[in-house]
Amino acid sequence: MKRILLLNGPNLNRLGLREPHIYGSVTLNELELQLKTIASSKNIELVCYQSNHEGGLIDQIHEAEVKADGIIINPGAFTHYSYAIRDAIASIAKPVIEVHISNVHAREEFRHTSVIAPVTVGQIVGLGLYGYELALLALVEKLGEEEKDEQN
Ligand code: DQA
User: Which one of 105, 116, 145, 147 is at 20 to 30 Å from 43 when CA atoms are compared?
Assistant: First the structure.
């Protein structure tokens, strides 16, 4: 069974409470349960981890090299300045998809830059929590394609 790691960065433990006009009223726990259900219907194990600490996220990314087949990450505000998370992603040979709940391009200027995006397969922005579901489906598709290439 393939395994996908879902990483959420700082303040995303506050989903449902935090600025609901931007991030909605669904909690992280509810989101994770919903995504796990979708993953298992695709025969994928989804492992979820949230941290407010850069190092915790980096450790998870390193471990994913051996423990997971791909990563979905919402790095929160680290998106905009964490070269350390970017380097961690660049250090592993696994596909990573970046997700943002809000449309970062329609918000403050500091949110317009992602230092993470260049080391990811792609980015999903501004589609609310649905973005996580889309990222999951895209990653499942990508892992299936990789498997086909390996067989040929
Ligand atoms: C966010 C956007 C970031 O700018 C912000 O710091 C977050 C959440 C999003 O999902 O829209 O914490 O990553």
Answer: 116
Residue ranges making up the domain that contains 119: 2-151
Residue 87 marked as a ligand binder? yes
Paired strand residues for 48: 6
Q: How far is the CA of 78 from the centre of ligand 1 (A)?
A: 9
pTM above 0.85, yes or no: yes
Assigned token pair, 25: 């009223």
- Which tokens belong to 48? 């979820």
Q: Residue 149 C-alpha to ligand 1 middle, in angstroms?
A: 35
pLDDT at residue number 22: 93
Enter the DSSP assignment of 142.
Answer: H
| 21 assigned to active site | no
CATH of the domain at 38: 3.40.50.9100
Inter-residue contact 117 to 92 (CB < 8 Å): no
Could you tell me if 126 and 100 are in contact, meaning their C-beta atoms sit under 8 angstroms apart? yes
pLDDT one-digit tens code per residue, 34-65: 999 999 999 999 999 999 999 999 999 999 99
Total domains in the fold of the chain: 1
Type of residue numbered 18: R
Alpha-carbon Rg of the chain, whole angstroms?
Answer: 15
